[in-house]
Amino acid sequence: MATVKDQGSAAESGSRLIQVTPGQGVRGTAFVPPDKSLSHRAAMLGAIAEGTTVVRSFLTALDTLATLDCLRALGVEVAGPKDGTVIIKGRPGSSGAGAGFDEPDHVLDAGNSGTTLRLLAGLAAPHPIFWVATGDASLRRRPMGRVIEPLERMGARIMARRGGLAPLAITGGALSGIVWRTSVASAQVKSAILLAGLQARGLTRVEEPAQSRDHTERMLAFFGAELRRGEGWAELQGPQRLRGRTVTVPGDPSSAAFFWVAAAILPGSEVRTPEVGLNPTRIEVLRVLEEMGAEVDVRPAPERGPEPAGDVTVRGPSELRAVRIEGRRVPLLIDELPVLAVAALHARGTSQIRDAAELRYKESDRIDALAHELRQLGFSVETFPDGLGISGPQRALGGEAWSHGDHRLAMALVVAALAGKRPSVVKGTECIETSFPGFAAAMDRLARPGNARVVEQPA
Ligand SMILES: O=C(O)C1=C[C@@H](OP(=O)(O)O)[C@@H](O)[C@H](O)C1
Ligand SMILES: C=C(OP(=O)(O)O)C(=O)O
Fold first, then answer.
1. Model pTM above 0.95
2. Domain edges within the chain
3. I need a surface site. Which of 51, 75, 108, 213 has the fewest CB within 10 A?
4. Residues 161, 186: contact at Cβ < 8 Å?
């Protein structure tokens, strides 16, 4: 993995930056973009289901568009997104009954998206085709051995670069089920194995050291699959056929978290995020903010699909308390840890984020890169092999920070800068397009009542 210093050489490649002028707090209502994890899964399950799947409120962002392009390359008919709706005609058939996927005549590009590459490996491995997939420089540094190994045991033939890195070349077909215990709690690994198992012969069971997000299990059941599951495990008998469905995707709690934390750290703030996903395996961040002293109000809406959703309002207290985040909690807020580290800067006492070495294998090394950039803004942060230590409250002057090409870092740094004393610049913010197009404008609307500004412009 590249060091923070190595990655610095790519700083020049950033094409956009965000200028942040701090102010008095954030106020208002923000509609966050549709959930990224759910958009990937709805499209992928639709691709192997019988009939037509309609995905409403599909996330139109680079990561999920990469998934649609990969599915098209495999011969799946995909229309849209048009006004947020995607229509997919499924190509079931790896169990011999239908056409299945076509063999693509070009290399599939998963872009920056780990979810695309890992889930697609499991989705397509049961189909008797040869295909090659890769991604951008960040994705080509991320470990793929964790999906290669179980899929090979199931019968797929997979070649990769040394260290199990993409590009991957996969020859699939006629897989058998597997009982697999993962060494890290990863929804992507679990999902890849379940998607392959669904189209393989026999029992597939995945056990993980702690419960990870359960979207695949819920969505499989919604598409008509029979599976059994409990805390940290799921199993199914293959092969099974899915039936196309209409899915409405709620707002993404991982995107909302940037507003929730901004509200929590800026006294006098109040932010409401309507129609956001409330899956318990995704909203641990709200429990942490509550523990830290923020006022959190959750109003669930009537359920209308595989996932709970509702309105969330966060109000900032006059002071936050330090928190320790570790153990089984970590997979339930893995993508929110960068912005929770920003919350910790504003909390009284010493906060620790531990058992989170997985952060080093995301779009950037989210431990070293975040610590480095927070220091650029004037904050003091300690790193551990498996996390971060932060003593607060700290209020930095401000400065210039870089995203490392990582959307979550870019947005977390904007939130950190909003609570600074002087204006700051976050460089390399074009990566935000992978999950949250329009982030700067949305944050700017909330910031203006407190005379703060968040403005994106070309670098
Ligand atoms: O399954 C998913 O949709 C995701 C799972 C998580 O990754 P891991 O499975 O690698 O923990 C998360 O970090 C990622 O943003 C999305
Ligand atoms: C880790 C993330 O996504 P992915 O693994 O799909 O690249 C993320 O969105 O923070």
1. yes
2. 4-34+251-458, 36-248
3. 51
4. no
